[in-house]
Structures are given as C-alpha cells and as structure tokens.
Amino acid sequence: TSIEIAVNIEDSAISMQAKDNGTSPDTGKTQGLGSELLKDVCSSWSLEPAPAGGMILRANLLLES
Of 36, 50, 51, 56, which has the fewest beta carbons less than 10 angstroms from its beta carbon? Predict the structure, then answer.
C-alpha cells in the first residue's frame, strides 16, 4: 500500500532505493524478466526483505559521460 523511493546522483552514477510494505515474493523462482532487465542496465543491484516487512530494492547505474 506504500512505497518510498530515494534517488542520489553523484558524479557519473545514480543510486536508487525503493522500499515497499508488501509481502516477500515466494514464487520459487530465482529470476524473472525484471531481474534480467536490472542485470542488463545496472552496475549492481539487490532485492532483499525489509526488517519490518516488505522488500527493499537497491540499484546502481553508471552514467555515460
């Protein structure tokens, strides 16, 4: 029902964090289409359960000069 998004731009990189209050996905799958897209466009990313419930997505993208 809610999501918090934080974006930070420094030099030639963008770091982003998105946190929701939903439930952890338990699909039995390790990767989906979204995971493949993140792997292609991000220098690094992670998706993990938030301590109080929900999920936290962290992603880092490099900008071209």
Answer: 51
Q: In Å, what is the CA distance from 2 to each residue of 13, 21, 37, 38?
A: 26, 6, 23, 22
State the DSSP code for 53: S
Cβ neighbours of residue 33 under 8 Å, at least 6 residues apart? none
Residues 6 or more apart from 26 whose CB is under 8 A from it?
Answer: none
CA distance 19 to 15: 14
DSSP string covering 13-52, please?
A: EEEEEEEE-SPPP--S-S--HHHHHHHHH-SEEEEEE-TT
